[in-house]
Amino acid sequence: MASLPEALAYRQPSAWRRVLASFGLLPVLTITLVVGVYLYEPRFLNQLNVFNVLRNSAFLMIAAAGQMLVLIVGGFDLSAGAVAALASVTTAMTMAKVLQAGPDAAGLAVLAGISVGLGCGLLVGLANGLCVAYLRVSPFMVTLGSFSVASGAALYLTTGIPVYGMPDSFTKDFGRALWLNLPLPFWIALAILALVWIVQRQTRLGRYIYAIGGNQQAARVSGVPVTAYLATAYVLCSLLAAITGVLLTARVGSGQATIGTTLMLESIAAAVIGGVSLRGGVGRIEAVALAALFLSIVTNGMNLVRIDSKMQPVVMGIVLIVSVALETWSERRRARG
Fold first, then answer.
1. Can you tell me the mean pLDDT for 42-47?
2. Which domain holds residue 66?
3. Do residues 60 and 266 lie in contact, with contact meaning Cβ atoms separated by under 8 Å?
4. Which pTM value belongs to this model?
């Protein structure tokens, strides 16, 4: 019978390989990209544009952190973008309803709206987790189905029309505010990333997630409650996607069923580029955060150099395909060596 340390040690790379797997060429590529875009378009380092990059990267960092957790346990979540949209819609509608009932209850409206939005994320994540962990349904089919349900519900609730009527304080003092001269969403993202880092390195949850992704059967026979922790990973992923949806709602000033359209693709791309293995058991939040920043710079750079918005998803798709190919190739090299 395998011991828990053996299960945890499965697929754990050596120190230098861990560093290489965590960052690889990302720092070099990021610096090269920044210099290249700046030389082509000096407005890139304009303060307002830097704030936009940090703010947008914050949204992606949070969603990618959740996607990373699911990938580490050997799954993936196709519903992240739809969960963000559903959270956006329900948050905005709840705030508007509360304000209609009591125009002076702005604080209550914000609290109720955020609670409902995050609650929707928790419900979707719980449904995903129960189906994958307890019913052992394919993560692809489960999250594809929840994607359809969440996106359809968001469209049904809004009929495709943005939801307004939220308190001004929610957008001005939360979504668009600066703290210590940096966008508030960026600080929120840093706090969440720090929390995920602590979970990964210092808690039983983090150790068990790696054990499950490294060798699920070995983790099970070692006494790890696999089903519970597997479900927890999906709940956390959806919760982080819902937080992203709430922050995006505060940023744009309305609840929209189309928020997070590209979030699923980008969150998976950030995780894979950040060294998270598609086979599970490997991944570090610091590298995923850097990958999210890298992708945000790519998107911002495409906007600055005026690449057609219809072509931008093509570029992101190519980046994802190349990343997956390189990740698979590097895994084969490690297996041979």
1. 89
2. 4-336
3. yes
4. 0.88
